[in-house]
Amino acid sequence: MTARVEVSGIGVELGGRRVVDDVSFAAKPGEVIGIVGPNGSGKSTLLRAMIGILTPAAGSVHIDGLDVAKTKARDRARVLAAVLQDATGDFDLTVQDVVMMGRACYKKAFERDDDRDRTVVADALRAVGAVDLRDRRFAFLSGGERQRVLIARAIAQQPRVLVMDEPTNHLDLRHQFDALALPRKLGVTAVIALHDLNLAAHYCDQLLVLHHGRQVRSGTPEEVLNSETLAEVYGVAAAVTPHPVTGRPHITLDPTHQAETGQPPRSWPVPGRDYLMEKESP
Ligand SMILES: Nc1ncnc2c1ncn2[C@@H]1O[C@H](COP(=O)(O)OP(=O)(O)OP(=O)(O)O)[C@@H](O)[C@H]1O
Question: Mind telling me which SMART domains this protein's record contains (predicted)?
Answer without folding.
Answer: AAA (SM00382)
